[in-house]
Specification:
The protein is an all-alpha fold. The protein is globular.
Length: about 200
C-alpha cells in the first residue's frame, strides 16, 4: 500500500546494484592486501557469505516472522561469531586488518548513506517503522555523509587520533541505536515498540 510495484522493482534493482558494487570493492581490497597464498581463500570466504545471505533473503527466511528463531538472527549471530573467532584465532586475519589502509576502512562507511535512503523507501512502503529512518530516531546517515570527509583527512595525514576516536565512537553509538530500534520493533516474538508499522 502506498508504494507502486514499479517503485519496489526499482528499489530492489538499486539495492542489488549497490550490493554488487560494495562486494566488488571488498573483493578488490582483499585481493590487493591479502597474502598471495591467501587471496583465493579470502575471496572464497566472501563468496560463501554473499551466497548465504542471498539464500536467506531469496528463500524468505529473513522475513518469516513465524519461526521460533527470527530470520534476522540467522544473519546477525553468524556475523558476530565469525568475526570474533576469525580475528581471535587466525593470525592471518589480524595481519590483513592491519594492512588495510585506514582511509579505505573509513571510506567504506559511505555505504551507510544509501542504506538510510533504502530504509526511508521501505518506510514509505510500510515495511519498517518511521523510527528506524532519518525522519524518526535513526541518525546513522551522519556516519555515511561524514565518512568520505574523514577518509580524505586520514589519507592527507591531517586527521588527529582524537578525531578518529570520536568519529568511530559516534558511528558505533548511532549504529547501536538503530539496531535496538530495529529489534524492538520487529513483529511477533521481539515486538516491543513501533510508532506506525512493525519492522518486517
Amino acid at each position: 500500500p502506498g508504494y507502486s510495484f514499479t517503485g519496489c522493482k526499482l528499489m530492489a534493482a538499486l539495492f542489488l546494484g549497490l550490493t554488487g558494487i560494495f562486494a566488488l570493492a571488498c573483493a578488490g581490497a582483499l585481493w590487493r592486501y591479502s597474502l598471495p597464498e591467501r587471496r583465493w581463500v579470502s575471496l572464497l570466504v566472501l563468496l560463501v557469505w554473499i551466497v548465504y545471505c542471498g539464500f536467506l533473503g531469496y528463500s524468505g527466511r529473513v522475513s518469516n516472522t513465524s519461526q521460533r528463531v527470527p530470520g534476522l538472527f540467522l544473519l546477525v549471530w553468524p556475523t558476530i561469531l565469525f568475526t570474533l573467532l576469525f580475528t581471535v584465532r587466525a593470525p592471518y586475519a589480524r595481519e590483513l586488518a592491519l594492512k588495510l589502509p585506514m582511509a579505505l576502512l573509513i571510506g567504506l562507511h559511505v555505504v551507510r548513506l544509501p542504506v538510510e535512503l533504502f530504509l526511508h523507501a521501505l518506510w514509505k512502503a510500510q515495511l519498517v517503522p518511521r523510527m528506524v529512518t532519518y525522519e524518526g530516531a535513526n541518525f546513522d546517515i551522519v556516519t555515511g555523509v561524514t565518512a568520505p570527509i574523514v577518509a580524505f583527512l586520514v589519507a592527507k595525514g591531517t586527521a588527529t587520533r582524537m578525531l578518529l576516536y570520536a568519529w568511530n565512537i559516534l558511528g558505533l553509538d548511532l549504529l547501536f541505536n538503530v539496531v535496538i530500534y530495529g529489534v524492538l520493533s520487529a513483529p511477533r516474538q521481539m515486538q516491543r515498540i513501533f510508532d506506525d508499522y512493525p519492522n518486517r
